[in-house]
Structures are given as structure tokens and as C-alpha cells.
Design goal:
The chain has 473 residues and is of the alpha/beta class. Helices cover 57% and strands 8% of the residues. It has helices at residues 2-14, 21-34, 39-50, 54-67, 90-115, 119-125, 128-134, 138-151, 163-174, 176-189, 194-233, 245-263, 277-284, 317-328, 350-355, 358-369, 375-386, 411-420, 442-446, 458-471, and strands spanning 268-269, 299-300, 305-311, 336-342, 346-348, 394-399, 423-428, 451-454. Helix 9 (163-174) crosses helix 11 (194-233).
């Protein structure tokens, strides 16, 4: 049962519920204490251990109900004569049940009569699988399917094309091959029992197919999402089609959430301010109430400043959009962000993000500042707007392709920013092989940067923002 619990935790992880090894051990301790007899009690105990937010609790409850599903498969024959409509009264329903039972009994009799003259069929009827089918032993058959599924590692299913493969493996593990061979033999002999045995075989196959379908939806749903996220994170941002944008936005928020949990600022308590009386008294208990140490409520968060300078001209507008979306998705832990956008001229756009949702603000920024690129003129505008505010506590992030249309690059202004700032980071969506080619000034600008990197997909952007957060803690 512990391996079953570990499989369940793997399902939770594939659905973006973070479960650490320590929490896995806690969950094993909960199941050891509560046992598996009371399903509701086990569900509540595991929920308190593994679900840490209301959103995670909703996902947990859904996964729990689907993973520990209690429904038994129905292996009774569904083809009975004189089927009754749902509108018939209770007496007619009882008559239908009796007819169904009689029909089922007649099928078994047909097989037993045929087995008297066919030793192989007689041997088949005495196998555990066939006996359970004939007796409609649903618990045993359901357990057999579960055991066969574990033996073929059904929980590793990822693609819908694998459903048929796993169905066949489970049937083989259950011994369905004997039924298949018997059907072939009866068909060659034109035995009247053929239709009856085919019916039992088809019922078994249908129940196994249904089981594999449910497991696929449970195990593969999260894995497919992770697979899609991995593809989108490695796709060049300017190649993303419009239909995937909402998925990319969700992926960015997911990445930002992961980085936020990794780089959350520790609150440093000061030695003055408002007295935390409760904590002070509690810490004095071991000293007979004498308050040797005092604790204060006031806390201070030291946040350096980030200047995000984004080229929003047509060639790199998509990259700037996602950089800004990423930065503003980290507002809770990221240092103060001031945003600037430019093409031929530069302006501060921080207020757009204060007044509008992030997606709307980015749309307005691209509309106002898009156009032909002039890095020299834009650096002059940045110097006028923010040079005096740049100091050793400031990180400047520039995103652009450094293609200046053969204008004056104003390298001296970037060098001045380099000397003042804590670090200057240049993210270029072009391949490094293209730096310095044509009208690109990237190699010259690179000399005035602490760090420069190729950045054209979300995976690269996540890695760079991760390093940025480390350097600003």
C-alpha cells in the first residue's frame, strides 16, 4: 500500500502540487496511523498533510477521488432480451432482472454443454479468470485488473497512442490469451457456444479499455501539460502562435511562482520599534518570566531597484512583452521595478502597470513606443530620465537586438550607466553568431555590460531571472 501511496503522490506532482520527500514521509505516517479502512478519514488526513493552499486542496480532492475510485467493474452480460425502458414501473423492472438472470444462466449452460465434448474449453472454464467471469465476481475481477495494471506499469502511460498497447498488456497479464485461443477454436469448429464465449471476451476487453482510459486521464493529463509547458518554454517567443498565448501567460505565472518560493526574502527583525509582547513573554517562560531578551514587531525589507529597458520595435516587441510580463508577475518578491520602453525615443511606462492589468499595459506600451529603432537617441532619453537615480543598488536590464540602423550608438552613455550601476544585464534575442553583423552594435555595447546573454525563449528567460534574483537578495 505504501507503493500505492507513492504512485498517488506522483500523480499530485504531475498536477503541480509540490510534495517534498519529507512531506511524503509524513503522508506515509498518516496512512500508517489512520489506515485505509475509512476512505473519508484517509482523504482528510492526507489533505491536511499534502495540500498547502485552497487551490491545491481542490486539485488534491479531485485526484484522490479518481485515484482511489471505489467503483467495481461490471462484467455481467449486457445483451438481454426484452430490455425495459426507464419509464417502466418496479414490477416490470423486477421482471427484467429475472429475465436477465435467466438469460445469463442459459449462457453458462451453453458453455458447459459445449465443454463436455471439448477438453480445451472445459479446461478454460476452470481457470480463475473464466470462473470469475461466469460468476460475475466483480471484486475479484477488479482486483485482477488492478494487479495486472501494476505489473505492466500502467501509471507510466503518457500518450493517447499507448492506450491500446497497455490494454493488450493488461489482458495478457490476466490470461485473456486462453479465451482468445478458445474463441478461434470454436470458430473453426462452428460451435454454437462461440457467440457466448465471444460475449464474455468482449465484456472483459471493454472493462479493461475503460480502466485504461480512466488511468490515462489521471496519469497522463498532468504529464501532457508538463510536456506542453516544456515545448512552449523552449520555443522562440516570436514563433508562438496566438492560440498558445494564454498557455504561455499561465506558464510564465507558474515559473514566477516557482522562483518566488525559491527567492522569497527573509524578514530581518530590527532591535527597535513596536514590542512583540507575546513573543517576549513566551521566550521568558524558561527564565521564570524574566524578560532577558526583547523582540520587536517592526521588520524591514531591503529591496534594490531594477530598471527594465525594453526595445519594443517590431523585431523584438514579442520578447519585451514576455520579459515585462515575467518581471511584473514577480512583484511580491522582486525589487522595485521601473520600466522603460523605446524605439526611436524612450519613455518611462511604469505607471501603465499601476493603472492597467499587465497584459493591457504591455499592449498600450507597444502601441505608443513602437516604430523604427534608434538606440543612441533612446540612451540619451534614459540618461535624462533616470541616470541620477542609478547607483550601486540598481540593476539595469536591457532587452533588445542592438540594431541601430547605422546611427550613433552613444556608447559613452551606456558606459556611464555601467560605472554607476550594480550590474548592467543585456538580453539579446538574436543568436550570438549574429552579434556585430550588419547594423548590430552588440559587440560594442557588450563592453559596457556586466553580463550579456542570448535570450529568446522562456527557459532562458527563467534562468536569467533566477540569477538576477540571487544577485539581488
Amino acid at each position: 500500500m505504501q507503493s500505492n501511496l507513492v504512485d498517488f503522490i506522483q500523480v499530485l506532482r504531475s498536477h503541480d502540487i509540490r510534495v517534498s520527500p519529507a512531506e511524503t514521509l509524513d503522508a506515509i505516517g498518516v496512512t500508517t496511523t489512520l489506515g485505509y479502512s475509512d476512505r473519508n478519514l484517509l482523504r482528510d488526513g492526507l489533505a491536511m498533510t499534502l495540500a498547502k493552499t485552497p487551490a491545491e486542496e481542490v486539485i488534491f480532492l479531485d485526484c484522490f477521488d479518481r485515484f482511489f475510485q471505489q467503483d467495481l467493474a461490471n462484467f455481467s452480460s449486457e445483451e438481454v432480451p426484452n430490455k425495459q425502458d426507464e419509464s417502466k414501473d418496479a414490477d416490470q423492472a423486477d421482471n427484467a432482472a429475472v429475465q436477465s438472470e435467466n438469460f445469463f444462466t442459459s449462457q453458462i449452460s451453453t458453455l458447459e454443454m459445449a465443454a463436455k465434448s471439448d477438453p480445451s474449453l472445459k479446461s478454460l472454464l476452470h481457470t480463475p479468470l473464466m470462473e470469475n467471469l461466469l460468476n460475475n465476481n466483480r471484486p475479484e475481477l477488479t482486483l485482477a485488473i488492478n494487479a495486472a495494471a501494476q505489473s505492466v506499469d500502467l501509471q507510466k502511460i503518457q500518450m493517447f497512442t499507448q492506450k491500446g498497447q497497455f490494454t493488450r498488456r493488461i489482458l495478457d497479464a490476466m490470461g485473456e490469451e486462453q479465451i482468445r485461443n478458445a474463441v478461434i477454436a470454436l470458430e473453426r469448429a462452428e460451435n454454437p457456444a462461440l457467440a457466448v464465449l465471444q460475449r464474455f471476451r468482449d465484456i472483459l476487453r471493454q472493462q479493461v479499455r475503460d480502466y485504461v482510459e480512466r488511468e490515462y486521464l489521471l496519469h497522463a493529463e498532468g504529464k501532457n501539460q508538463q510536456f506542453m509547458d516544456d515545448i512552449l518554454s523552449k520555443t522562440r517567443l516570436n514563433n508562438l502562435e496566438h492560440i498558445y498565448l494564454h498557455k504561455v501567460h499561465e506558464l510564465i505565472r507558474k515559473m514566477a511562482k516557482k522562483l518566488a518560493s525559491r527567492h522569497a526574502h527573509k524578514r530581518r527583525h530590527l532591535k527597535r520599534g513596536q514590542l512583540n509582547m507575546a513573543k517576549t513573554l513566551r521566550k521568558g517562560i524558561p527564565n521564570d518570566g524574566v524578560m532577558f531578551n526583547t523582540y520587536w514587531r517592526q521588520v524591514k525589507k531591503e529591496k534594490p531597484q531594477i530598471l527594465a529597458v525594453c526595445d519594443v520595435s517590431g523585431s523584438v516587441a514579442a520578447y519585451s512583452k514576455f520579459l515585462l510580463l515575467f518581471l511584473y508577475s514577480l512583484q511580491d518578491i522582486l525589487p522595485k521595478v521601473r520600466s522603460f520602453a523605446f524605439s526611436s525615443h524612450l519613455g518611462e511606462v511604469s505607471t501603465y502597470f499601476d493603472d492597467y492589468p499587465v497584459e493591457k499595459a504591455i499592449e498600450l506600451v507597444n502601441w505608443k513606443y513602437g516604430g523604427a529603432t534608434d538606440y543612441g537617441n533612446s540612451l540619451m532619453d534614459l540618461s535624462k530620465l533616470a541616470l541620477d537615480d542609478i547607483n550601486s543598488n540598481t540593476t539595469v536590464i536591457i532587452l533588445g537586438d542592438a540594431r541601430n540602423n547605422n546611427g550613433d550608438p552613444k556608447l559613452d552613455i551606456l558606459q556611464s550607466i555601467f560605472q554607476r550601476a550594480r550590474q548592467v544585464i543585456w538580453l539579446n534575442p538574436e543568436s550570438r553568431r549574429a552579434w556585430g553583423s550588419g547594423d548590430s552594435e552588440m559587440l560594442r555595447y557588450q563592453s559596457a555590460c556586466h553580463f550579456s546573454a542570448e535570450c529568446n525563449n522562456l527557459k532562458q528567460l527563467e534562468r536569467i531571472v533566477d540569477q538576477l534574483l540571487k544577485s539581488t537578495r
